[in-house]
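Q: I have 233 residues here and want to know how they pack in 3D. Can you give me a structure?
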Amino acid sequence: MVILTLLLSCLASAVQAGAWARPRGEVFLSFSSNLHSSIEALADGVDTMSRHDSAYLEYGLGRRLTFSAEIGRGQHSRESMGLLRYTLTRPDARFQAALDFGAGQRSADGQDNSTLARLGLSLGYGYGITPPDWMPLDLQGGWIALDAHAVRDMTRQEDRWKVEATFGLTLSERSRFMLQLVAEEWAGLDVTYALNPSFVYQIRGGTSVELGIRAIQAEDVQLGLELGFWHHF
């Protein structure tokens, strides 16, 4: 069960910009909290749920370079990672591609700290929509993203990988819908799948709130709720 909780913690990462480079000097911050429990425990009236909190930062360095850092904390694990992403395509291109390289550290109850190394690939595509006159929503287009990365535990000589597909739709000037599909595998464990629909609403200026639900198929089926706050400046 501890291994499952560690894996769920990594699935509950903050939303990233994917392949798109941050303009020079632009900052993006996000804070999120995820509560989850198995269907069996929920059916039995469980009064406590597992929780994972994370914070994510992106900073545009210019020249298609973006620095990012993420810190996550669960009940049994803690992980931090610093990344440098290079976007291969022009900022105005509809199709985007980027590579990222990173290093970090992970600690877990009953285990020594691990040094981590990461290599990732991100693809993105933005599209526009002209909705029919009868549609009440002011649809403005959206994006499709595919992010894949591998993490090497240099201390234990183990690997894990993760692939995440995101479908995003801009519903209005202040609201967006996202659907994320995730597959992840750790050494010695079966592949885990997650489905995460969420709604993002801009409450003021560059600040938005995200509300979502999460379903995870691992050792058992887990259901969760997610609350996040985003800020651009």
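Q: Anything worth noting?
A: Residues 1-14 have pLDDT under 50 and may be disordered. The CA atoms of residues 164 and 198 lie 15 Å apart.
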